[in-house]
UniProtKB/TrEMBL annotation:
One of its GO terms (molecular function) is transferase activity. It comes from the Bacteria. This is Glycosyltransferase involved in cell wall biosynthesis. PANTHER family: GLYCOSYLTRANSFERASE, POLY-BETA-1,6-N-ACETYL-D-GLUCOSAMINE SYNTHASE. The keyword RNA-binding does not apply. Residues 5-128 form the Glycosyltransferase 2-like domain. InterPro entries: Glyco_trans_2-like, Nucleotide-diphossugar_trans, TPR-like_helical_dom_sf. Keywords: Transferase. Pfam families: Glycos_transf_2. It comes from Ruminiclostridium sufflavum DSM 19573.
Amino acid sequence: MITVSLCMIVKNEEEVIERCLSSVSDLVDEIIILDTGSADKTKAIISKFTDNIYDFQWIDDFAAARNSAFDKATMDYILWLDADDVMDDINRNRFSALKESLETDVDSVTMEYQLSFDEYGNVIFSLRRNRLVKRANKFRWIGPVHEYLEVGGKIYNSDVSIAHKSLHHDSDRNLRIYEKRLSKGEKFSPRDMYYFANELMDHKKYKRATQYYKQFLGTGKGWVEDNISSCSKLADCYHYLGDYDNELDAVLKSFRYGGARAEFSCRLGYHFLQDKDLSSAIFWYKLATMLKPTREQAGFQNQSFYTWLPYLQLCLCYSQLGEYKMAYLHNEVALQYRPNDQRMLQNQKFLEEILGPEVPGINNTEGKDDTPE
């Protein structure tokens, strides 16, 4: 069985750090924490779990801090987490099994990172991250902001998931760091352009964000998942700016970087729905229902587009066409994903009143075999 060092960097995390460490402390063989300037009870709480607490002078460089933590690890593999990350019981068991079974020639293990959840606890956004790496390889973190772990060799895509349960976020911190770097005349890498554009968009600086997304895509040197994400975010910016022609162009540009994805199929469906071209809208929403993300797909995923959303939109399209039976069937599929969704329940009631004895699978035995096309 492999041994694992948990390495973390923290600052003023008294509200979440105990929750995080309690969920993983018994699964790892060593805990190493770098504190970058806490002024609250963070270090006192951490001391319940480990004596390996180190002070690190903050220099506006996340990679430097993470690399320093990694340098102090002594076990076979290194696991990294943020203070507001949590591992639930199901994934604790999966991680324990992983430790028992992992082949020692594996260089890095990816895990799903669940970033946000809906009101029913379903995962909305997720991506995959290199989360557990072989210490002997001395993999390094790259980038002062939105740092990434540069890995190579044999990669194993595990079934373990980490949940991000943030309570607070210093929303201006990363933007300040990027602006400071720009003011010093630093030349941004393509990756910097992408993440700076993300920060600008998050702060509703849409026009400036479009400039950096286009600049990033123009380099031709971006990671394919960042290219695809840029097209989506660029479309968002144009939408907020009311520039719907460029919004459509950004969506279509995404197909240059990979196959069809449900996110963009739904966006095209919405575009044609707004234009009242219901036939085209139905085509794109139907395509979305046939597309599934793969475990190997490392990019940012909005699960709504792969589950309930296209079915709900198909319900709307068919209702507008007066095809209430098809509308009802698609709404029923959407309800399977969100059985307490009030919009879908209202749709169900409305359509049952219209259809009466023609409700598929309820009052009409012929309807029980009907399925959405």
